[in-house]
């Protein structure tokens, strides 16, 4: 009897202590808007109508240098939910489902295990296999109101009104609140009626987003919870008009971030209300930071660092970002940002910025911009988007916020270029970036091994791969002999990048033709497709097109996408592959599939060469 009483008393004390600890833990609320750069009054945008967030900024801390890791939602959200850098896990390509290792948990699960009530309303889009156990509720009706009495919560509300899809259908001009004729366009956009209208309509969407954010803040107040809740407001990536979302410029990666700390938790705040900070923070840091605020352990596998709470670390020097495949178009870029400069390395510089994307082109502004280019009416800044990329880009953010004056070749900035080039290279190695594996091979590896595990297995020759990719993208003719040598490398990824180097060099790589022809029979389909692309540039047609046509029958979707990207560039020369193109569409009717989108585009413009 005495033992039973003792055990009951001990249980009571444990429960009481747990409840007391939970009551001392802050609630955390995330208000996440979609697809918007800092187009807010509190960030100095005088055209914006955002009174609620402007007021919120006076109550909180505004971050001038907050960055998404990716300029598009799914890879960006992969970062947020894991505290990991997507190129380290293979989750960098837009909308994929490559698995992550078992130890990589969606971080709300740690809150839930610590007694928090976790809710998500309602977008996920985490670019990997879902982990529904992270949430008590995840739906369009999810709310912290359903928690137990006194239970702390971590809640996310996603506001999709500012999403890119909001301008796909044009509102009549007379119904717009923002005047298209008063929009201040970025210098790279032509002043077409469609462009001005899309911008004005977008500002209307941001005004509605601000209203919705304000309603959530008022609801929190009405529930009597504002005094116990730390509130984040931020956007999931920049956007939305052409050359912003999906592109690794300020317009795609810089996001608004405002955090409000109630007086009760002012000791956790890095500064006082109404403060503006230039501290660099990235989405990699969000998960460890909120775990720190809640007094929870930060898992050792997380690559981000806490910028808030008791586990706050020294300010980071750089924000890293990336661009992989965007929907049906392959590409690869990496970027590094410090407080003054942005460096970009384009590893597929032969691909123009403006690769056609079915979804992007739904905005009326995009066809209008393209029409102006074809008509020869663009100035130098406006037509760069329709041309091949430089290997490297360097921008002085303070003096060139729109990133239009590339300083990479300016001798006066050589030391800065070298410093940031090295920072980029070092991060590729440190983070074990698997994004340099062509996706056709990457997807095959992922069927048996999480890509993070593969990177750590010793099978991935990372240093040699990165070295080859840097040589390949450099446009340095003196490296041709080395590229030809690496066309015979034992590693398929190295062979792939050596082929890319010959594509980038164009006619200067003619001495590689004989070896490239042998690679049409390479054991890896990604290498075969790349070799076909290289040989097409040298004027060969029959065998390269046959190789690409055969790739369309592959059971590897990413191989099909890679081949379709090449076929679209050669216009009527692609006709021998049309039978397999039509067969692909017959067997894969879903318009949402990226290979289907690319195939349809080729057949719609059969005899027209790609823009």
Write a structural description.
It comes from Dyadobacter psychrophilus. Keywords: Calcium, Hydrolase, Metal-binding, Signal. Belongs to the sulfatase family. By secondary structure, the protein is of the alpha/beta class. The protein folds into 2 domains: 295 residues, 3-Layer(aba) Sandwich (Alkaline Phosphatase, subunit A), CATH 3.40.720; 155 residues, Leucine-rich Repeat Variant (Alpha Horseshoe). 38% of the residues lie in helices and 11% in strands. The protein is built from 22 helices and 13 strands. The strands form 2 sheets. Strands 1, 2, 3, 4, 5, 6, 7, 8 and 9 form a 9-stranded mixed beta sheet that branches. A hairpin with a 3-residue loop joins strand 11 and strand 12. Helix 14 runs parallel beside helix 16, helix 16 packs parallel to helix 18 and helix 21 packs across helix 22. The radius of gyration is 25 Å and the shape is globular. It starts with a helix and ends in a 7-residue tail after the last helix. The C terminus is likely disordered.
Can you tell me the overall shape?
Answer: globular
Helical amount: 25-40%
Question: So, the CATH homologous superfamily of the largest domain?
Answer: Alkaline Phosphatase, subunit A
Mean pLDDT: 95
Can you tell me the number of structural domains? Answer: 2
Specify the oligomeric state: single chain
Tell me the distance between the termini: 86 Å
CATH class of the largest domain: Alpha Beta
CATH topology-level name of the largest domain: Alkaline Phosphatase, subunit A
Supply the helix-strand structural class: alpha/beta
Low-confidence segments, given as residue ranges, are 13-21, 607-611
Number of helices: 22
Number of strands: 13
Q: Which sheet architecture does the biggest sheet show? A: 9 strands, mixed
Q: Approximately how much beta-strand content do the residues carry?
A: 5-15%
Assign the CATH architecture of the largest domain.
Answer: 3-Layer(aba) Sandwich
Taking all Cα atoms into account, the compactness measure Rg is: 25 Å
